[in-house]
Amino acid sequence: MKPIHPKLHRIDHFKKPVQDDYEIILRPETSWIHLELKGIWHYRDLLLLMVWRDFSAKYKQTLLGPLWFLLQPLLMTLVFTVIFGKVAGLPTDGLPPLLFYLCGQLSWNYFAANFNSNSATLVNNAGLFSKVYFPRLIVPISALISNLFTFGIQLALFVGFYFYFKTGPGPALFAASWRALFLPLILVQTALLSLGVGLLMSAITAKYRDLTHVLNLLIQLWMYATPVIIPLSKFPEKWRWVIALNPMTTIVESTRLILLGNGTVYPAHLIDSVIVTLLLLAAGLLAFIKVEKTFVDTV
Amino acid sequence: MARPIIEVRNLSKVYQLGSIGATRLKDDVERLWQSLRGKPVIRKKGEFWALRDVSFEMQPGEVLGIIGKNGAGKSTLLKILSRITQQTQGEIILRGRVASLLEVGTGFHPDLSGRENIFLNGAILGMTRAEIRRKLDEIIAFAEVEQFVDTPVKRYSSGMYVRLAFAVAAHLEPEILIIDEVLAVGDIAFQKKCLGKMSEVAHHGRTVLFVSHNMAAIRNLCSRALLLDHGISEINGTPDSVITHYLASTAGQLSTHISMPPGEGSGAFPTSLRLSALDGTPQSMFKIGEPWKIQLEFELTRDLPYVIAAVGLRNVESVALLTWWSAPSDLVIGQYVVDFECQIPFSAGEINFVVGISSHEQTLYYAEGTSSAAISEIAVGDQPVRSSGAGLIAETQRPIIRTA
């Protein structure tokens, strides 16, 4: 039997069909840097339809519909405020506890929602992927976009409470800053981070099915490792870099800094956070692309 | 000549046995632990070559039928061509957009309405929203679900579901269409509609790859056929020749003495069914047009009036070719013989037998034999012959056209 030599070939790009030079060559390959960006562009209608489907199906399935997107962070925030704020008396960086926790929820939820949607993509969609072909990256990307709408709704909730506190009784102890313009960038970083982690976990769970049970635990533990409940300022200064290895730390603290005027952000942590994000994104993409080609055989 | 729209060269696909199915982290950790302790670890449980060195080409507009036994590699080939999984070796060149129908209703979401699912399913199959919008009315009309198009699909009956799913798929316009036995669903009216649409698509110049076990469909729709056996492409040619080859290879055991199942104690059962040439020499394979003889021996364990013994001939697709009934007679306990002489030329293929014994038109015995006879592809006198269709041959002597 001839030995199998893996070749480093790339699939020729998608050209518009019906042209004479339209050609796709498929070879077994172990080339890792192969993104079907053109394929995703070609299937952009599908991407939009999937975003619409995710949103619409959630809307139709629940009794409360879109209200649920507001209730969940609200309830969580109330619980945190009462338990951690009032009962445990944890500090909140000098900010009103409700706003503090709500802001933390806001930035954390987008990451968590993406993680939950995407961390077992291959396993969850095995039926679909084994019957029809389309660039599989479309599924996690569509989740990122549909969760963005949820983020938007929760941001509106936050803004509502912000103005209530700002114009309501009591001294105004906080202020949003012009740095709010950076919020989209932070959002992009969160999206890329959650994409990377999600793809990595998808690749791992495609091989080791039993790890799907661990995912829930993982995201919960991750939250406790992020200053969502306890601000970074509470940690002794020489240990803060450890917490900052978690890229979400800087994201959550920056969001608080931007929206409420008080957060612990070091430039070094910022750079570290971005680097880790990009590394995780690269690792996730490589792992996913490698696994998705043949996972149908073993899923 | 235009370049081939599909080129497949030396395609192979290997599956590792033993690791099919979900691996568990627990298992891998255990194995690692075992190997660290120095115990021998059984890693490889062998390989399975689903496809081995398959090569073929397709020109634009061809309709290729792929046939073969279950497990021959047909679905694997389609999956690789559809990019659902990747080959182990070999190269494929595609010069057109591919749309695959490997399942009906892929991606349907139960909570969305029929209309919404048309868009979703259409997009999954590769259509743009503009395309779907253009064809929406046609699709709904084809599926006959006008009244229900805004109800969630989870409320549909299975028939409606399938009709809708197929309707979307039927309106795809890719350059290359790959279909895997999807059509064996729905009621007869719908199946006819599907085959009709398939035929329309096939004759409109679209390149189609079609996997099916329905030999009639393959004959009607395909311009060429490919036979896969254990992952190897056995033969590639006209549908008739490939189908004949396939049927010959799956032929049952040929025997001059056809074994029949035992009776159920109703008083009559066959003791032997023998095949021979007219002069009595046992023979199990006959040339086209060669006369042959079937001799049935049966036994009666009680007196029976108006006994008729019959032999039915069926081809390998279980299409009934011919049935002979003996003349009726009143018989007593004993053993009897009936000879049937066959002068009718059948076309090449396998012939299976059914024996029936009745008394006063009430069936006492009816069963199918477990071995067969075969008509070879050669005609008597070695004259060239054209045979097609199920069973009866069109002509061994072809009439000559003359002016009116």
Describe the structure.
The complex is a heterodimer of chains A (299) and B (404). By secondary structure, chain A is an all-alpha fold. Chain A contains 13 helices and one strand; from the N terminus they run E-H-H-H-H-H-H-H-H-H-H-H-H-H. Chain A has helices at residues 37-42, 44-61, 67-87, 97-118, 121-124, 126-129, 138-167, 183-207, 212-224, 240-244, 247-260, 267-292, 295-298, and one strand spanning 24-26. In chain A, helix 3 crosses helix 7 (138-167) and helix 11 (247-260) crosses helix 12. The longest helix of chain A is centred in the middle third of the chain and has 30 residues, at 138-167. The two termini of chain A are 27 Å apart. Chain B contains eight helices and 19 strands. Chain B has helices at residues 25-36, 74-81, 114-124, 129-143, 158-170, 188-202, 215-221, 239-249; strands at 6-16, 47-58, 63-67, 89-94, 98-101, 176-180, 207-211, 224-229, 232-237, 257-258, 268-277, 285-288, 292-300, 304-315, 320-325, 329-331, 334-342, 349-359, 362-379. A six-stranded mixed beta sheet of chain B has the order 5-6-7-3-8-9, sandwiched between helices. Chain B is globular and about 75 Å long. The two termini of chain B are 40 Å apart. Chains A and B meet through strand 1, helix 2 and helix 13 of A and helix 1, strand 4 and helix 3 of B.
